[in-house]
């Protein structure tokens, strides 16, 4: 499912937080959440959907997880990151960022402990640049390349207090501008326009399923066809390794915390 089983990383601040933890620069706080006698890593709550037996087990799982992320960040050739959200939930005291709101998949919401934050353009740029600085230290100055995309999946809810249509446009506009700025300013960063392909008016809104949120399999295939056409080296590797892997992943469904939240809400 993932290179290091880190679950969904929706925001750049969450990505930076993970890299800082790997580098030993910070440790997340209040990341063990409980639900019905089971314990969860709040930083990747869907990785163990049935929960673990104790808080100590969560800690041990996280230590192993961080060791694997460290190996990944030291050794990768190309880092692909999808800018997904600007909205996030924060532990007030420590600043720890969570991928889901407390009380959804696990834990309990307490307004005295947690607060909502909607990241701004400058904050996201600074966070991504700091992420790259942390990466350089982890890799001991070994150069790296990054490929950015923006998620075309729209918001279905918002905690901003504004209409979800306004919040979605704000989020996507900010993230697309961030991707463009990083691409223009950093020679090691490329941008692939999967967002533009899916939301292109020429698609006549047929890229989305009937729920107007999920991207249709055919649209995903169109995106990937463009991607491999632009990156023939990766296309050859794909052909040599597993011809039907992409189709299998599409068929089995992509795992997403937001999808799980929708399922639990039914």
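^ Assign residues to that structure.
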């Amino acid at each position: 499912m993932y290179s290091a089983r880190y679950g969904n990383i929706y925001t750049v601040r969450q990505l930076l937080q993970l890299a800082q933890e790997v580098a030993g620069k910070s440790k997340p706080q209040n990341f063990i959440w409980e639900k019905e006698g089971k314990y969860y890593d709040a930083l990747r709550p869907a990785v163990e959907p049935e929960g673990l037996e104790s808080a100590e087990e969560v800690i041990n799982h996280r230590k192993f997880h961080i060791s694997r992320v460290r190996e990944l960040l030291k050794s990768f050739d190309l880092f692909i990151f999808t800018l997904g959200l600007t909205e996030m939930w924060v532990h007030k005291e420590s600043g720890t960022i969570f991928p889901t709101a407390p009380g959804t998949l696990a834990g309990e919401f307490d307004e005295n402990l947690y607060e909502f934050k909607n990241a701004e353009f400058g904050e996201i740029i600074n966070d991504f640049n700091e992420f790259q600085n942390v990466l350089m230290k982890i890799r001991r100055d070994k150069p790296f390349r990054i490929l950015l995309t923006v998620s075309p999946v729209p918001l279905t809810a918002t905690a901003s207090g504004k209409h979800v249509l306004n919040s979605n446009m704000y989020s996507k506009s900010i993230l697309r501008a961030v991707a463009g700025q990083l691409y223009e300013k950093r020679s090691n960063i490329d941008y692939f326009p999967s967002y533009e392909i899916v939301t292109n008016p020429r698609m006549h809104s047929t890229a989305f399923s009937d729920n107007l949120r999920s991207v249709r399999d055919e649209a995903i295939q169109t995106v990937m066809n463009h991607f491999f056409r632009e990156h023939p080296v990766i296309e050859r590797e794909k052909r040599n390794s597993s011809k039907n892997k992409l189709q299998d992943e599409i068929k089995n469904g992509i795992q997403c915390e937001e999808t799980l939240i929708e399922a639990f809400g039914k």
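The mean pLDDT is 87.
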